[in-house]
Specification:
The chain has 8 helices and 13 strands. With 326 residues, the protein is an alpha/beta fold. It has 2 domains: 187 residues, Rossmann fold (3-Layer(aba) Sandwich); 95 residues, 3-Layer(aba) Sandwich (Rossmann fold), CATH 3.40.50. The strands form 3 sheets. It has an 8-stranded mixed beta sheet. It starts with 6 loop residues before the first strand and ends in a 14-residue tail after the last helix. It binds aspartic acid. The site of aspartic acid has 11 residues, from loops.
């Protein structure tokens, strides 16, 4: 029997989209993650009667996102994506770490159906909340035939997981895809696509089976290169037994010479180091003289996720503190 593939599953994790404030005029003094997904969906008339299934996976302000929640979320995505009658997933999420979750999920799922993260910049109690329209748009994208990969939908724009980044502190249209540009737009419920859905970017670093068996998450920290940067932070992290280091480098991947020396010594001592640019636009162009590998177009926070997943593929070093100077 042919199963009709039209169900959209909405997985909720909290965020401002589920936030409430005491005063409807207050768009910033609210508490994120207060309303459950059933309540959020019931408040949107345009979603009534659609074949939606809702599941509350977490209820957090996304600034507090954790690896354990990522794992639970990825496994729930894997479960629902495997159902024949499901055409796509929507994930409600806070805006603060949405891009990290999107990149993580694309890395471990590389899904053949759409996984659409959506969010809000104003709480559900605002005079004019943005969450309901974002939800409607996200369901439209998840239901679009041929849609695939992990994307983010906010303010009518579809961003791919590799490129999306929060770029504004309070505007409703807070996300950008930088140089790459958005995947498309949602126009009155229809997707106008400008470029391809996210595909596989090289190998899938880690599968769901491996993810479910992880006993210890690698510790990967981000250090920043800036005027006056030195080696002290790297030395302290190495002494604590850090597993990997991402440097948020200046410009085309340049690093303060004192910090670079410390990073090169850490690398020589077996710690994985990755250089990402702290510039909001552009990618690091590789040069054979660079001793520290570069993360291309990945931002420091996404480079950290990539490094973490790479480290999970191989046995982690012992956590015994190492000497700072190596
Ligand atoms: N702090 C909130 C969160 O990330 C911000 C938001 O959702 O816009 O959950």
């Amino acid at each position: 029997m042919q199963v009709s593939r039209n169900k959209v599953v909405v997985l909720a994790t909290g965020g401002t989209i589920a936030g409430t404030a005491a005063d409807p005029r207050d768009n910033i003094g609210y508490r994120a993650a207060q309303l459950g997904i059933a309540e959020l969906l019931a408040a949107v008339p345009a979603l009534q009667g659609l074949p939606l299934v809702a599941e509350q996976v977490a209820q957090i302000d996304s600034k507090d996102m954790s690896f354990d929640i990522w794992r639970t979320l990825a496994l729930r995505c894997g479960h629902w994506l495997a159902q024949d009658d499901v055409c796509g997933l929507v994930i409600t999420h806070g805006t603060d770490t949405l891009e990290e979750t999107a990149f993580f999920l694309q890395s471990v799922l590389a899904p053949a159906k759409a996984v659409v993260l959506t969010c809000a910049m104003r709480p559900a109690t605002a005079l004019v909340p943005d969450g309901p329209q974002n939800l409607v748009d996200a369901v439209a994208v998840a239901s679009t035939p041929g849609a695939r990969g992990v994307v983010a939908v906010c303010a009518g724009t579809i961003h791919g997981a590799f490129d999306v980044a929060k770029q504004h502190t309070w505007r409703l249209d807070a996300f950008s895809s930088g140089d790459a540009g958005p995947i498309g737009y949602v126009e009155e419920g229809a997707v106008r696509r400008l470029r391809d859905w996210p595909g596989r970017d090289g190998d899938r670093p880690l599968g769901l089976d491996e993810l479910s068996g992880v006993l210890r998450w690698p510790r990967v920290e981000i250090v920043m290169s800036h005027a006056g940067a030195g080696r002290a932070v790297v030395d302290a992290l190495v002494a604590q037994g850090v597993d990997g280091l991402v440097v948020a480098a200046t410009g085309n991947g340049t690093v303060h010479h004192e910090l670079e020396l410390a990073l090169r010594q850490a690398q020589a001592g077996g710690i994985k180091v990755l250089r990402a640019t702290r510039c909001a636009q552009g990618r690091i162009l590789a040069h054979p003289d660079n001793a520290l590998p570069e993360a291309g177009a990945l931002s420091p926070v996404k480079a950290r996720v990539r490094l973490m997943l790479e480290l999970l593929r191989r046995p982690l070093r012992s956590r015994a503190p190492a000497s700072p100077g190596r």
